[in-house]
Amino acid sequence: MIFALALGLTAGACRTVPPVPPSAADAPAETGTWRGTATAQDQARIRGWYSSWQTALADARAKGFGADIDREGVLLQPTAALPNPHLPAGDYRCRTIKIGAQGRGGLSYVAYGWFRCRVSAEQGLSSLTKITGSQRPVGLIFPDNLKRQVFLGTLELGDEKMAVNYGSDRMRDMAGLVERIGDNRWRLVLPAPAYESLLDVIELVPAG
To answer: What is the pLDDT confidence band of residue 25, given thresholds at 50, 70 and 90?
Structure first.
């Protein structure tokens, strides 16, 4: 896999980490950071993460899913992030919860079963790939602050074997926050996804 940014990264897994072009709107000093890499749409998603959380939870609670939300505890609490968000390389069990509905008739809360994800070490960064399932995020994890990292990637669908390039399809681009919420427990929070929900939360725990 080749990561086509000025960083010149090569990933070790069998899937393609989508090339990420620098954003022309950012200063040259930002190149290689998530702010210098993210599209304008994804920068807005990251800025609006808390608003997306609140809107999604309100919609789900209004539709009768309050007990489901409460049962998940810290996983679905917006401010539950702990220090040291680094996600170590390795294989993970991962499950997705979709919260809030984008339009009438959609489900406001859907919790899926466990699938397989993998984190691989890159040259200074990490890649995150959802290996199984019909909707599979694949991308890179960038450092941000003491309580979160930032994921930028694209969505692989169905029986596709290769992810589209980041920045080439607004409906496939993904941006989210990687946070630690317990001992050996993390989450990837994806605010304002392109499809179905208002917020996606992917729980990650080591597979071993």
So the answer is: very low
Express each pLDDT in 126-182 by its tens digit: 999 999 888 889 999 999 999 999 999 998 887 777 778 898 888 889 999 999 999
Nearest to 18 by CA among 127, 166, 124: 166
Query: What are the tokens at 175?
Result: 């941006």
Q: Is 33 helix (H, G, I), strand (E, B) or coil?
A: coil
The burial of 10, by beta-carbon neighbours within 10 Å (0-12 exposed, 13-18 middle, 19 or more buried), is given as exposed
The two structure tokens encoding residue 68: 């489901």
For the chain, which residues make up each domain, given as ranges? 2-20+31-206
| Residue 179 bridge partners (DSSP) | 187
**What's phi and psi for 154, nearest 5 deg?**
-135, 170
Exposure pattern of 70-97 as b/e (b: 16+ CB <10 Å)?
eeeeebbebeebeeebebeeeebebbbb
3-state secondary structure of 200: strand
Amino acid letter at 145?
N
3-state secondary structure of 71: helix
Q: Residues, the chain, total?
A: 208
